[in-house]
Write a structure and sequence with these properties.
By secondary structure, this protein is an alpha/beta fold. Helix content is 30%, strand content 21%.
């Protein structure tokens, strides 16, 4: 395995140093006389632990026209990620040990990021009968995160049993918090004055909040762990803040798009901006930013949701939910949270690497930059100006909400166990 000397990088704590990487680990910090096969000039750049995404849709098996494990891994590497959690709503659903191992093997074949399967909570995402939780946990995939994402585990008895079951092996249920009776079957955006004016059926924020409140109480009752996926409302933030103050074992994530984009974008009826949960008003966005800054929300997760053109290019009410996020996540967080004075680079490392790795139980990721630690690393240019071009994406899909938007901060290099997957901003 080659050796790499990263010269003059700023670490998350602000100190500047050289970092020698060899044999997959960090060998030295500081000035070194050791010879390296490759040198990266990192003057003016920030070196962070590799990013971990708790919430990625890779679409394989079943929808390889939208994304594959390989193309999604490419997008992740370009975005600075060294590990992603692949959601279970594939076809067939990842609800068996065999299906989980298949996704694991596809990720290993791609070899660009560590792809960790997420197991379904219920068989076929049907919400009625628990999936093979224990078998998936004991499989080669060692599944620890379970989710019916795309659908809510709406039955409280099923959710309770799932929490009780995963507690035995340290698992966590990641919930898509959306009460189906409050949301309705035709809702496609946030319920409010704008949805009424546009004639679009909407669902209220309370449809999310009541499930968050229910689930934290079930987590307290069972003594188990619940993770709130893609938090989108100020009310959910308050419930999570209260639950943490009570000592309930709850964690939460927010997407880059919910940190920046608002309901105002719906006025164009552009289906690119149709996402679940929906874009919310500015007051919710402000609450999410503050919660990420103060630790109420633990992590940024992309909810990268690629779609083929024939699924997305419809009238707004008929288009598929979801948008791309892997390649632009760092730039959005840098623009909103770092430039906005809400996080420093140590905070970025916490919410994009350390906390996600801890929640997912991923060994070797989210580790501090220290001698002996695995060299899963991301090098960022904090001053770079990026104008997003959807045509330049390495994803198979083009449902990119950031097209033509100017952002600050760019991933320059990504190393997976000391091997570069991205250099000078491009895939190797």
């Amino acid at each position: 395995m080659s050796s790499i000397l990263i010269k003059g990088a700023a670490l998350p704590d602000g100190t500047t140093t050289d970092v020698l990487v060899a044999d997959g680990v960090i060998q030295e910090l500081g000035s070194t006389t050791a010879a390296a096969e490759q040198t990266i000039d990192a003057a003016g750049l920030v070196l962070l632990p590799g990013f971990v995404d708790l919430h990625t849709h890779l679409r394989e098996p079943g929808r390889e026209d939208a994304e594959t494990v390989l193309t999604g891994s490419r997008a992740a590497a370009v975005g600075g990620f060294t590990a992603v959690l692949a959601m279970a709503n594939t076809n067939p659903v990842t609800d068996t040990a065999e299906a989980a191992e298949r996704v694991l093997d596809l990720g290993r074949t791609a070899g660009l990021v560590d792809v960790q399967p997420v197991g379904a909570v219920t068989k076929g995402l049907g919400g009625e009968e628990l999936a093979e939780l224990g078998l998936m946990a004991r499989s080669r995939a060692k599944v620890r995160v379970f989710s019916d994402d795309g659908k809510c585990v709406a039955d409280p008895r099923v959710m309770r049993r799932a929490l009780e079951y995963v507690k035995a092996f340290g698992g966590v249920i990641s919930q898509h918090s959306q009460d189906p009776s409050l949301a309705g079957s035709t809702a496609c955006c946030h319920e409010g004055e704008l949805s009424g004016r546009l004639g679009l059926p909407g669902w209220p924020g309370v449809a999310e909040e009541v499930i968050v409140a229910r689930d934290v109480m079930l987590a307290r009752h069972t003594g188990s762990r619940v993770h709130v996926a893609h938090v989108s409302t100020a009310g959910s933030v308050e419930v999570i803040r209260w639950a943490k103050a009570q000592g309930i074992d709850v964690t939460a994530e927010v997407t880059p798009h919910h940190l920046l984009l608002t309901t105002d974008l719906l006025g164009t009826y552009d289906p690119t901006f149709k996402v679940n949960p929906p874009l919310r008003p500015n007051e919710d966005v402000e609450a999410l930013r503050a919660a990420l800054a103060d630790g109420t929300i633990d992590a940024v997760a992309t909810d990268h949701a690629p779609h083929a053109r024939h699924d997305k290019e419809h009238a707004f009410v008929d288009a598929a939910f979801g948008m791309l996020g892997l390649e632009t996540a760092l730039s959005v967080v840098s623009t909103v949270m770092v430039e906005g004075g809400l996080l420093d680079w140590a905070g970025v490392a916490r919410v994009m690497s350390a906390n996600p790795a801890r929640i997912a139980g991923l060994e070797g990721h989210g580790r501090p930059i220290a001698v002996g630690e695995p060299a899963n690393l991301t090098l960022v240019d904090p001053a770079a100006q990026v104008v997003v071009d959807r045509a330049a994406s390495v994803s198979l899909s083009r449902n990119n909400p950031w097209h033509d938007r100017k952002l600050t901060g760019r991933v320059i290099a990504t190393l997976l166990r000391g091997t570069p997957t991205v250099l000078e901003g491009a895939l190797l």
